[in-house]
Amino acid sequence: MGTSRLEEGAPHEKPHKPLLLLAVLDLIDEGKASPENIPWNQDLRDRFTARFLLVRKHNDQNNPDLPFRYLAGDGFWQAYEADGTTPIQREIRVTDMNEVFARFQNGFEFLVAIPENRQTMRETLIARYFPQSLREELVSKKVIQNIYTPRAAEDTPEYGRSPAFRRTILEVYDHQCAACGLRIRLAQGNDVSFIDAAHLIPFSESYNDHPTNGLALCKNHHWAMDRNIIAPGPDLHWHISRLIDPRRSNGEKELYELTGKSVLLPKDPAFHPDPQGLEWRKKKLSA
Ligand SMILES: [Zn+2]
After folding, report:
1. What is the pLDDT of residues 88-140, one digit of tens each?
2. For the chain, how long is the longest CA-to-CA vector?
3. Helices (H) and strands (E) in the chain, counts
4. 261 CA to centre of ligand 1 in angstroms
5. Alpha-carbon gap, residue 52 to 54, rounded angstroms
6. CB 272 within 8 A of CB 66
7. What spacing in Å lies between the alpha carbon of 46 and ligand 1's midpoint?
8. What's the 184 CA to ligand 1 centre distance in angstroms?
9. Ligand 1 center from residue 178 Cα (angstroms)
10. Per DSSP, what are the bridge partners of residue 103?
11. 7-11 long-range contacts, CB within 8 A, separation 24+
12. d(CA 148, ligand 1 centre) in Å
């Protein structure tokens, strides 16, 4: 029925606006946003991404900034600069987080303020835009928890053992080492890959399995980063510990040659490494 129409011939409708609205409804339910003040922040972006990963088709890009701005065209929403009065007429960036915000308008702010209406909107959005088979997961807050909820310390892997984290990192980096560009894949799927999903700030410390706390690295560079011999910096270039002496061995020479090279990033800017994590890594670098 509705489902098959979406999946067959009909041109694929971009999921961004409904996904952003679902994320906003969550935040209002939880008291983390109000109809007049919807902050552009990490929480909103995370909630968008969690559902986006469920429904994406291959051409879709994970960019919540687009609907945050362009929902204005639908008449019930407007995004504002930090001054609270200037409508946003420009690209919204990650660096605008906790500065810019949006609000419902034209009477919608009163509708959305009522919990029953939010529930109706949620169901309507899902029924209208997504396959019925995904309804349960899209409604459920579990979709968010699966990716973001800190897990108990005792089942904390040192790195790369969370299947969702690994799968996402390998996918967005297209199985390519962010340092040397190595890409070796023996088979379809993520099980046989020489590339690791490495955390910037270790999971045991950050409890953060968001893809922006990760990098795809080959075994060598993963090893070197974990020993603080190499580090990606907030300038998105590689930095090398002064302990490395390129004259001493070929291995060290190879690591040394990474100095100043660009971090190889995913195409999708929404998955670029978090500047805080990069800063953390650079500070850890052995002097
Ligand atoms: Zn490498």
Report:
1. 999 998 788 889 999 999 999 999 999 999 999 999 999 888 888 888 888 87
2. 70
3. 13, 7
4. 12
5. 5
6. no
7. 28
8. 11
9. 7
10. 78
11. 7/131
12. 27
Residues 46-58 have pLDDT tens digits of 888 878 878 887 6
- Contact yes or no for 18/128 (Cβ under 8 A): yes
Each residue of 131-164: pLDDT tens digit? 888 888 888 766 665 444 433 333 334 444 577 8
* 6 vs 88: CA distance, rounded Å: 32
Within a 10 A sphere around the Cβ of 127, how many other Cβ atoms? 12
User: Sorting pLDDT into bands at 50, 70 and 90, what band is 2?
Assistant: very low
CA of 234 to the centre of ligand 1 (A): 19
Confidence of residue 284 (pLDDT cuts 50, 70, 90): very high
226 touches 203 (CB < 8 A): no
pTM greater than 0.85: no
Structure tokens that stand for 158 in this block: 């040192």
Could you tell me which residues come within 8 angstroms of residue 180 by beta carbon, excluding any fewer than 6 positions away?
218, 220, 221, 258
Q: Which of 7-21, 56-70, 232-246 has the lowest mean pLDDT?
A: 7-21
Question: Beta strands 101-104 and 77-80: pairing type?
Answer: antiparallel
**Is the distance from CB of 36 to CB of 109 less than 8 angstroms?**
yes
In total, the chain counts a number of residues equal to 287
217 Cα: distance to centroid of ligand 1 (angstroms): 5
In this structure, are residues 62 and 270 in contact, taking their beta carbons and an 8 Å threshold?
A: yes
Calpha distance 142→140 (Å, rounded): 5
